[in-house]
Amino acid sequence: MRTFLPVEDLARDDRFVRYTMRERMADKRASARIDAKERSKTSNRITPDRRDGADAARGLMHGILVGEIQALEGAGRTCHDFRVTGIAERGPLATQPIADAAPAAEVPFALKLDMARQAWDEARHVEISVKLAEWMGSDIGSVAENTVLFEAACSTDPVLRLAGVNRALEGLAIDVFTTMKEFGELAQDPYLAFCEDWMLADEVTHVKMGSDWLRSLTANDPARRERALEFQRVVDKMFSFGGTRSDSMDSPIGLARRFRELAGFTDDEVADIAEVSLQALNERKQSIRAARQSSAHSTAGIEPAGFEPAGIEPAETA
Ligand SMILES: [Fe+2]
Ligand SMILES: [Fe+2]
Questions:
Q1: 249 CA to middle of ligand 1, Å?
Q2: For every one of its 318 residues, what pLDDT tens digit does the chain have, with 9 covering 90 and above?
Q3: What does pTM read for this prediction?
Q4: C-alpha pair distances (Å), 273 with each of 15, 22, 233, 239, 268
Q5: Which residues, other chains included, contact 227 with Cβ-Cβ below 8 Å and sequence gap of 6+?
Q6: Ligand 1 centre from 252 Cα, in Å?
Q7: Ligand 1 centre from 246 Cα, in Å?
Q8: Chain-centre distance of CA 87, in angstroms?
Q9: 68: exposed, middle or buried (Cβ count in 10 Å: 0-12, 13-18, 19+)
Q10: Could you give the CA distance from residue 224 to residue 104 in angstroms, rounded to a whole number?
């Protein structure tokens, strides 16, 4: 079987619609969909009492669904793409071409076992998320799919994959699942609340795997660790979705500090993510203000208090 599958070759049937991050961030509907006067003045969190709460939750649920599919594909690829340390010359993979960066193309067998366990979890999450999406009233393909999660799993260095996917994106999943669990509790929907809680427990484990492997594989290679952390920072910033997730109540999704701590993030690392997220939120607010000022249509009366971040649309998380 082929190693290092490009994102273009992911298997999807014709129900799925793909779009790029650039297209997503350029979508003007994201900043002008709701009249600010009808929005809460104090919070943008996705809650059932928000006028657009049901649609926002459905969009987020679809983002979770496609994120689970890509997380399954990414973890499965990491099982398959790399040789096992110490036995690289044996077995059917010995004659196959592998990544350019040969030292980074080997992983301990225990890492593959962790990725296999994760693939098993993600497959279960896909099944749960399909059922939850139906339960909430949406269909596969009702929202476009962004494949940046899988792209982060295409690095030729497994440490970068784990930093980008398991720590940045699965970290975002912790924030998203916490928000969806709270939404389920507020909506008095035990199915949604319980399912999100159970998946959240798996995601904390996946992030912890990323944190542990990052530290152990780079224990004697500070340069490689720094490259991995830099990759994680880039992915974290990209997936802040213009401030969709931050400590600010202007963001639909909060930062789940306690669960991140359980997943192996240090206080400084959580503080870094909080700062990057807030920065992304402020940049998004500025760009919305600029777009409104230059718009031919009058936007009088729509003030930043009704700020509508792009991420009310799906957040692909695992
Ligand atoms: Fe996961
Ligand atoms: Fe998952």
A1: 26
A2: 888 999 999 999 999 999 887 787 777 665 544 444 445 556 788 999 988 899 999 999 999 999 999 999 999 999 999 988 876 555 555 545 454 445 568 899 999 999 999 999 999 999 999 999 999 998 999 999 999 899 999 999 999 999 999 999 999 999 999 999 999 999 999 999 999 999 999 999 999 999 999 999 999 999 999 999 999 988 888 877 678 888 888 888 999 999 999 998 999 999 988 998 888 888 888 888 887 788 766 545 444 444 444 444 456 777
A3: 0.85
A4: 35, 22, 8, 11, 9
A5: 157, 159, 160
A6: 21
A7: 20
A8: 33
A9: buried
A10: 10
| Residues with C-beta atoms within 5 A of ion ligand 2 | 68, 122, 125, 318
Domains assigned to the chain = 46-293+308-312 (1.20.1260.10)
Q: Is 11 helix (H, G, I), strand (E, B) or coil?
A: coil
CA 278 to centroid of ligand 1, rounded, Å = 24
